[in-house]
Amino acid sequence: MQATDVGHRRADLFALLGAVIGISCSAPLVVAFHGPVIAIALWRTAFGAIATAPLGWRHRDALRALARRDWALMAISGVFLALHFATWIPSLRYTTIAASIAITATQVVWAALLAHLAGHRAPRREWLGIGIALLGVTVLTGIDFGLDPASLVGDVLALLAAMLAASYMHVGQRVRTRLPATAYTTVVYTAAAITLVPVLTIMGVPYTHLDAHDWWIIIGITLLAQLGGHSLMNQALRSFTATTVSLAVLIEVPGGTLIGWLWPGQTPPWQLLPAAVLILGGLVLVLRTGTTAAP
Questions:
Q1: What is the torsional sign of CA 41, 195, 249, 53?
Q2: What is the pLDDT of residues 73-111, one digit of tens each?
Q3: Sign of dihedral through CA atoms 39, 86, 41, 223?
Q4: What percent of the chain has pLDDT over 70?
Q5: Are 169 and 295 in contact (CB under 8 A)?
Q6: Alpha helices in 25-123 (DSSP H)
Q7: Is 290 left (phi over 0), alpha (psi -120 to 50) or beta?
Q8: In the prediction, which pLDDT does 247 show?
Q9: Cα–Cα distance between 247 and 240 in angstroms, integer?
Q10: Burial label, 1 (beta-carbon count in 10 A; 0-12, 13-18, 19+)
Q11: Do 282 and 132 form a contact (C-beta atoms < 8 A)?
Q12: Residue 116: exposed, middle, or buried by beta-carbon count in 10 A (0-12, 13-18, 19+)?
């Protein structure tokens, strides 16, 4: 291996570590938000689009070369991303950080199921992993119902968020392989923000009149999770496979739980452990087949 390749691999390893830290900060920051949390979904996508637009504009020739079908796919992908944030973020008001992150991590499972519906033949090990992960979700929701029935609302929202995230990736993946990451994310983030404006308006959510504390939370989420997390994951793909990156991102489950425990001080119940082990074990089996892409 040449010295340049070694340098790139080392840099990308640090990028992957930074991405995991960035996305692990997202849930604790949402919990610390004072206002209507669904407003975060709008502003993180809007600010993300604004931040990536200058880099995305450099690839305007590639964007112009896209067919109408490709633009439609990116728009639909943006709608799914908007709905993903609109369900996952509110889930944190009903259930714990640990439960929400663990359930949303089943995105890989739903991606595998969508691939199956699209004609992909999954090996038995992948189906075994899907079954184990879904068993973990069942155990987790049962635990939450026993501890606090209201937590089931958050669990269901997190499960919907996982399905929507998988749909977002499934729809946009064909365009993404033919378009630089910054150009793709600029279009998709813009579509997501445009989708959320009428949704929040119809719901009567005050998304502009926020206090200074909440604006700082939004900026932190945008920088750490939206830009730092997603951008650094794409950077890491230069040296690591999509499967490796996806597997590393699963560290968000214990990482986000630990950060939430330290701040804002949300201690997870010990009963979460067996469910988390099942979910993570199932996801590892799915990812080891190498059939799913990194988010």
A1: negative
A2: 999 999 999 999 999 999 999 998 988 988 888 887 888
A3: positive
A4: 89
A5: yes
A6: 26-31, 38-57, 60-64, 68-91, 97-104, 107-117
A7: left
A8: 65
A9: 11
A10: exposed
A11: yes
A12: middle
How many angstroms separate the CA atoms of 93 and 97, rounded? 9
Cβ pair 236, 245 in contact under 8 A: yes
Tokens representing 242?
A: 């999509």
**Residue linked to tokens 């199932």:** 282
Burial degree of 270 (CB within 10 A; 0-12, 13-18, 19+): exposed
Cα 31 to Cα 24: distance, rounded to the nearest angstrom: 13
Tokens 């501890």, residue located: 147
Q: Six-digit token pair at 44?
A: 């993180």
What average pLDDT does the chain have? Answer: 85
- Count how many Cα atoms sit within 13 Å of the Cα of residue 99 in the half-sphere of its side chain: 34
Residue 37 amino acid letter: V
Residue with tokens 């365009």: 175
- The encoded tokens of residue 138 equal 């069942």
The token pair that represents 8 in the structure block: 């790139």
